[in-house]
Fold this sequence. Notes:
By secondary structure, this protein is of the alpha+beta class. The protein is about 25% helix and about 25% strand.
Amino acid sequence: MQDLKLTLRQSTLVSPPKQAENKSFFLSNVDQILNFDVPTVHFFKANPDFPLETVAKRLKMALERVLVPYDFMAGRLKLNQQSGRLEIDCNSAGVGFVVASSECSLDELGDFVYPNLGFRQLAVQTLDNLGPDVEQPLCVIQVTSFKCGGFSMGSSLNHVLLDGASAEIFSENLATQAFDDKPLVIIPCNDRHLLAARLPPHVEFPHPEFFKPNLPTIFGPSVFDCKREELDYTTFNLTSTAINYLKNKAKESISSTTTKITSFNVVAALMWRCKALSNDAEYNKDRVSTLLNFVDLRSRLNPPLPNSYCGNAVLLAYSSATCEDVEKWPFSKLVEMVAEGPNRVTDEYAKSVIDWLEINKGLPCGEYVVSSWLRMRFDRVAYPWGKPFHSGPVVSHRKDICWIFPGVDGVNTLVSLPAKEMERFVACFREFFPQSIVNFSPKL
């Protein structure tokens, strides 16, 4: 269902109750490369004590309250002309707040796990009523009611604001502020200078996971994005049976006794293989395929970052091989490489990356990024009206990112690719398993 028959009820900006002191908010080199929107949506069952008007009122109140410790989220991106760096102007311009209603019921939406282009309507990225001369907010929160009484809460956040871990804490804090008398779960640590480059920068390792764009810095950091084109969307449902099959296959000829054969590692290795072998219309055995996956730095640095660190405390681990090797190597070899990538990200390596980015203003360099939601627990966040029964990413124009998130039984992966490439990806996926062991959604 691509048209959810929405009616817009409210579209406004929400600011902190007291305007904060106008200041420039420092963004780390990791933040600089993640200037793109991430839309997500959370679905809630009907609660007779919380009709749309009550939910909207509570959520708007919660936003106003939570923007006191998160005042930077109500600001706007700006370019520091002297340094060529992005900063946030903490000007209390506000976050977007949208209230809408749908003529559909939740039952009509089908299986929430599978891609639904209509969900884009539940997490809008811009406020059309602001006009062409008004800067768009970095965050938009949207609540949408359905005729069955259930509703959704969508969000579109610029990635410079939060990574996955800090987004989960923000959600918990937002939920507490929707109650009358609950304190914040965790007070965010907003000091992003904790991930500032060293003076002078000192690059100790090669960093093939990044490249230096050939652009003048007067235009600011390059944007980590991809070409917008028509895509097909497929969710691959890997049940616990399929995951166990992959783990057993990885164990067949594993050479390292220390390799962790986790659900993420085996699924990421499979996604890498399918992507590498489906990329070209004509197979090029010598082409190098690189898989990237995000690694949380909080516990890897010395001293460790506080768990409350609010910002992007992530770096990209990489695995590279020619397409011929990806195809011919045993599956265990690919799993070993995926597992080895994060082990490379030590304190010294992370600081070297941050310093490299300070010098080169680079961008991620890889064919495919695998982003894991397996440790995200948005479905455990308790609002006054209950916990969401489903939370997940919304399909976007990005064909270079595969999302891995929990399933009812196993793991789901959301893949977005052009039609011909998707056909080859699906064929490669099917060939890897015995018949009837896995399922996936029809393409959209």
